Amino acid sequence: MPTARWNGAVIAESDDTVVVEGNHYFPPESVNEVLFEASDSHTTCPWKGVASYKSLLVDGKRNPDAAWYYPDPKPAAAEIKGRYAFWKGVTVE
Question: What positions does the domain DUF427 occupy (predicted)?
Fold first, then answer.
């Protein structure tokens, strides 16, 4: 089962991930939202649309914008709507 970890904590875990461009996108119900912190950051992908970000806060350590998701993706990326992917030291195994 794919599991995302950072700073010793399980961030997300699910058998229902969607892999796009090598990234596992976890369903929202599989993430530990207690570890997430709001972010005002956004980026734009030409075919997926506008991504929103969240930072991680685990045991007093902050990992800014380490999680991203597409709340309203373009039609070509509809399968990842609302799902979370990770980077910046988050491991997915």
Answer: 4-88
Pairing state of beta strands 9-13 and 23-25? unpaired
Q: SS3 for the chain, per residue?
A: CCEEEECCEEEEECCCCEEECCEEEECHHHECHHHEEEEEEEEEECCCEEEEEEEEEECCEEEEEEEEEECCCCHHHHHHECCEEECCCCEEC
The domain spans of the chain are 3-92
- Residue 56 one-letter amino acid: L
The C-alpha atoms of residue 75 and residue 12 are separated, in whole angstroms, by: 25
28-40 pLDDT tens trace: 999 999 999 999 9
Question: In the CATH hierarchy, which fold is given to the domain comprising 3-92?
Answer: 2.170.150
